[in-house]
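Deliverable D4.2, example record:
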Amino acid sequence: MTEERVCRRCLLFESGRGDVLEDIRIRIEKLSEKERAKSEIYEERLGICAGCEFLADGTCLKCGCYPEFRAAFAKNRCPNCKW
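Output generated by the structure prediction step:
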């Protein structure tokens, strides 16, 4: 039996937790255009989260959220004031 490796300092799409990521993608698709962050802002936010010391197993250790989901909302802010 081979052990699946999990990326400890990665976002969900890199961590091997595709089931959770797929659920988040479905929820993001259901957001209205007004609620959703523009794609360039979303990608910029994820880039910042990817380099954050509070990211572990695809989760923000500062607040417990999944960055892919938090970053999708136009009005959300980083709990560590990075974006």
